[in-house]
Design a protein that fits this description.
Aspartate Aminotransferase, domain 2; binds D-serine; alpha/beta; 12% strand
């Protein structure tokens, strides 16, 4: 079974040593993480493997530059090059998604969402969004998020599970969305989720928003790459504002971005800076530009399609192992697994921990109407974006489902777990995420 730190000796002579110079401790940790990422299965639905070009831009000298403001209107000198970088990122984002305006400065999806609320709402305004335990995000008004202290959130969820494989339920309850909208008169409706495996059509949300005179924000943090790759419908023409992260299916650097109609551009830009953030991370903005360029390539469309095909193969194979797939399947890069039919005693936390031990990395997740709390849960969330980037296909998805089933069935058998860890490592060795950087994963 792989050790926690991994075997970093493979990377002992990597460029990490050169760039980090005397800091052997950090250098070793980076090498250990590179080893962990390449020798274990990365199935966290919000992660991916960026290109070497994205890594290089993220690790560039642009990190040295202060650039508060926007291209052509900065509060510091010396921004001639940075202006070009950020303008390029904005233009590429607009072209990729067909948007009127793009702000590429949000440090994360959460700050992008906060900026939209700040731009469009007054404190105390009502927002209608998906509840966290139904698949929504913390920033969709969770009591644990500052969003719920500033604005008044009302939540919608999914329809109940039916037990009928032909019509499984657990899809967005649009009757509930429409009823709540009529009753609560929200100023903003939020579409989008972080743990929902079905297609989210923007049209019904737009109709409901129009019926009550609300703005519509589409949080595309998860499916942004599927939208860019033409696999999911684009919400850009219908929503007033679209937020997304650049590091999930879009396969760019860790960060956020906002697309909006021209009429909201000034309010959105002011909400990001100076409203919420100071100096933008221009090295990350450069890496976002690289990722937008890569996502415009025809090969990215093929990638996006394979991500979904793989997710469906994984869901089908896991169902064959005795797990229940929430919502009856998947239309995107992720799936939610209900562990209870497989083993009523097994919690999501126990499953996550034992899978981690054999090198299968995923996260526990509440399923709709989960009787267990968020820390233990009855479910797991899995995604295929990263291992699809590494080159895996349907055959490997079936193998992964078998490995998961065997690991959980043998969770108290140390010998079996050791053997399973070796099988996982062998599978990963056949699909290195950075073959072009062999000996220097992470790009140095
Ligand atoms: N934490 C992210 C996810 O894993 O989906 C959302 O912010």
């Amino acid at each position: 079974m792989p050790s926690l730190a991994g075997d970093s000796s493979r990377f002992a002579s990597s460029p990490f040593q050169h760039w980090l110079g005397a800091d052997q401790e950090v250098s070793n940790l980076l090498a250990a993480e590179a080893e962990r990422q390449s020798s274990t299965l990365q199935l966290i639905a919000s992660e991916n493997f960026t290109s070497a070009a994205v890594l290089a831009a993220t690790g560039s000298v642009l990190t040295n530059k202060y650039a508060e403001g926007y291209p052509g209107k900065r509060y510091y000198g010396g921004n001639r090059v940075v202006d070009e970088v950020e303008a390029l990122a904005r233009e590429r984002a607009k072209a990729l998604f067909g948007a009127e305006h793009a702000n590429v400065q949000p440090h994360a999806g959460a700050s992008a969402n906060l900026a939209v609320y700040q731009a469009l709402l007054d404190p105390g305004d009502t927002v209608l969004a998906m509840r966290l335990d139904q698949g929504g995000h913390l920033t969709h008004g969770s009591p644990a998020s500052i969003t719920s202290r500033i604005w008044r959130f009302v939540s919608y969820g999914v329809t109940p599970a039916t037990g009928d494989p032909g019509s499984p339920g657990e899809v967005i309850d649009f009757d509930q969305v429409a009823d709540l909208a009529k009753r609560e008169r929200p100023r903003l409706i939020v579409a989008g989720a972080t743990a929902y495996s079905r297609l989210i059509e923007p049209e019904p949300f737009r109709e409901i928003a129009d019926a009550v005179g609300a703005y519509l924000m589409f949080d595309s943090a998860h499916p942004a790459g599927l939208i860019a790759g033409g696999v999911h419908p684009s919400p850009v023409a219908l929503a007033d504002v679209v937020t997304f992260t650049t590091h999930k299916t879009l396969r760019g650097p860790r960060g956020g971005a906002i697309l909006c109609k021209a009429e909201h551009a000034k309010a959105i830009d002011s909400a990001v800076f100076p409203g919420l953030q100071g100096g933008p991370l221009e090295h990350v903005v450069a890496a976002k530009a690289v990722a937008f360029g890569e996502a415009a390539e025809p090969s990215f469309r093929e990638y996006a399609a394979r991500v979904v095909t793989n997710a469906r193969a994984l869901a089908g194979a896991l169902a064959g192992e005795g797990f229940r797939i929430v919502s009856g399947g998947t239309d995107n890069h992720l799936l939610l697994v209900d562990l209870r039919p497989f083993d009523a005693e097994l919690t999501g936390k126990q499953a996550q921990d034992v899978l981690d031990r054999v090198g299968i990395t995923l996260n526990r997740n509440q399923i709709p109407d989960d009787p267990r709390p968020p820390f233990t849960t009855s479910g797991l969330r899995l995604g295929t974006a990263a291992e699809t980037t590494a080159g895996m296909g349907a055959t490997q998805m079936e193998e992964i489902a078998r490995l998961i089933g065997r690991t959980l069935r043998n969770r108290d058998d140390e010998q079996a777990l050791t053997a399973l860890g070796e099988e996982v490592a062998a599978l990963c060795a056949a699909f290195p995420p950075y073959p072009e950087l062999d000996g220097s994963p992470g790009g140095g």
